[in-house]
Structures are given as structure tokens and as C-alpha cells.
Design goal:
The chain is α+β, with helices and mostly antiparallel strands and 360 residues long. It has three domains: 199 residues, Nucleotidyltransferase, domain 5 (2-Layer Sandwich), CATH 3.30.420.380; 42 residues; 111 residues, no CATH class. It contains eight helices and 16 strands. Strands 3-2-1-4-8 form a five-stranded mixed beta sheet. It has a four-stranded mixed beta sheet with strand order 11-10-9-12, with helices on one face. A four-stranded antiparallel beta sheet has the order 13-14-16-15. It starts with a strand and ends in a 12-residue tail after the last strand.
Length: 360
Amino acid sequence: MKRLRIGLPPLDQLTVNSLVQFAWLERGAVVSEGQGTLQQLSKTRQAVDCFLHPRDSLLTGLDVPPLAPAKTAAAVACAAQALILGPLEQMQVAHGPRDSDGCVPVAWVPNAGVERLSQMLTQVSLKLRGLYPAPFALPVGVAAMDEGYLLTRHSLQHGTVHPLGQHALDARFDVQLAATAQRWSGALPAWGLHGRLRQPSTGGWGRAVACVAVATGIWTLGLNLYAARQEDEGQRIKALMSQQVRQAFPDLPVILNPLQQARQQLVARQGGAMADPGQRFTSLLQVAGSHLTFMVGSVDSLTFEQGRLHLALLADSRRATGQDAWQAALTQAGFTATPDAHGWTLGPADSAVNPEDGDE
């Protein structure tokens, strides 16, 4: 897979029409290079590795004791404060790993320049893969002259920039000058100045929708689990109430609506001894439990008036099926059940009420 590397001009002069050096690499080797503008390179739709102009490549090495990563970052920031001309908060500071000699590579660049680069790349739809000081485009152990600056690559993580000119190379440095084909072929370090650089992402909405979908799925699953738990709890409470009513009123033949039946029993006991109306209520309740078994668990309220028992059903309860069989058995027992909009009215066969009588 090909990778595109770009050598930037000074960041304070960068525009989408700035002329930049670029090179295409494949498997670590330069396959082509040239010059062009960011606007022209935007046609590639390629993620790019950018290398700062030597003037913007401010880097050095600091001796730091062995520390935890968080403490190393704090120590580097504290030490870099003495080297940076200006407030530290206006700079983006980055550092590499500590080597065996205790030296930590450090680089910094003004935030304003990094923000300008981000804006230019976004404007031409180029995605930044990495941002590095100029020497890291070179192979290890190689030097190059770039607009009056001497760039040297000492190791995978260390490099230097010297604004000293050709005499510095002749007098002080025993390094190999990079050939044209080597200028862009250096291995990238494990660190760079792109760590906190934010670029708008075209995939933001997709990730947001995915997050919403996941959150909705989790919420729905949790709601279903909660509803199932509440249903189980409701059934447990209902069974407990039926058991308590059966223990308190052992004369009740069947428990259809424990709360309603308990209230009626209490009212009947407060009103005096169980006379004939109470016996009629008990017999009708026993008949309902024996023949209208489809109502068990579906009765919302019971009303006993004029010798008849009205059973109001819950709104979501199902109507009876196979009516001929149980109606015939109920008639044979001397009773009848009449349906209405809310439930059934149960009474002796000789006191059955025609639903149309009330309309006359």
C-alpha cells in the first residue's frame, strides 16, 4: 500500500495553494516524488504523513529519571518550560520514549500553527496520519541540508536540527549526507506532534447513529428485563394475597379476586351474621369457581346485588371459548351466566336477566 509524505513550508505561511515537497512510498521505498500544492494533492484522497519545515522543527533531548508515563509527561513539560520562548499553554509539546541513556526526545510547536495546518488539510479533504519534525523523514544515521538547516537522524526516536550551514557538517559531524532517494525513506518514530490534533471526521454521524442504536438496544433489553421482573413480582404478590385470604376466610370456596372478596367478607361480618344473602353469595361464588374457570386471574371486581353476582373482568382478559359446553353444565346445575360489556352476571336460572330488558 502506498503512503504519501509531505514536507511543509513554515506553518505561518501555509495555504491550500502553498507549494510543498511530496513523495510516494511503497514498502518503505520511495517510488516517486515531486512538488505540488495541497489543493492538487487533495485529488488523491489519501491519509498523509506531514513533516514540519526545519524552522518549525523545535526539538531536543532531556535527561529524565525512570518515571511512570504520567509523571514523565509532567517532568518533560516542566523541563520544556525553560526552553520554550512563550507561555507553555500556547505550545503543543510531545515527547518520545526514554532511551537506555535516560534521554527523552522532546519537540514543540505553536498551537496556532497546528490549528492552521488542521484547517488547511480539512479544506482540501486530506486526513492527517502523523505530524513529525523534519529530521524524521531521513533514515537513521543520515543527514541532509534543507534551506540552510542541517538535519540529522541519530536513531529511530532522536533527531536534531542545526541552523548552522555547511561548515557545521564539515567541522563537527561525522554523518552521511542523504542521497535524493533517501530523503523521504526514514522509518517513522513512535511519537509525533499529532497526538492532540483534532480534525473533523466525515464518519462522525455514522458513529453517533451507531452509538444511539447500541444505547437504544441496551435500554430496550433493560426495560424488558424490568417488565419481566415486575410481572413475576406481581404474580408472587397475588398468590400470597390469595393464600392469606383463604386462611382468613376458609369458608370461601374459591379465590378469584382476593382483595375484593376480602373486603366483602369484612363488610358482611361487620353487618351481622351470615344470613341467606351471604349463603347465596357463597354458593354463587362456588359455582363461578367450578364452571367459569376461564375467569380465574382475570376478575377485576365482584358485585353481589339482588341475589346475583356480577363479575367485572380486566380490560385485557380473553373471552370464553367453547361456550356451549360450560353453559350447558351451568344450566344443568340450575344457574345461568349472562354476558355484558364488562363481564358476566351469574344467578339462579329462574332469576336470569335478559340484557335487553334494561332497554325497555
